[in-house]
Amino acid sequence: MRTVGVDLAAESVRTAVAWIDWSAGGARVGGVELGADDGMILDAVANADKAGVDCPFGWPDEFVDFVIAHRDGNVEVPVGPTGREWRRGLTLRVTDRAVHELTGLTPLSVSADRIGHTAMRCAGILSGLAQRGEPVDRSGAGVVVEVYPAASLNRWGLKHRGYKRAANVGKLGELVDELLTAAPWLDLGAYEKKCRLSDDALDAVIAALTARASALLMTTAPPPEHIGTARREGWIALPTGPLSKLPEQS
Question: A Pfam family name for this chain (predicted)?
Answer without folding.
Answer: DUF429
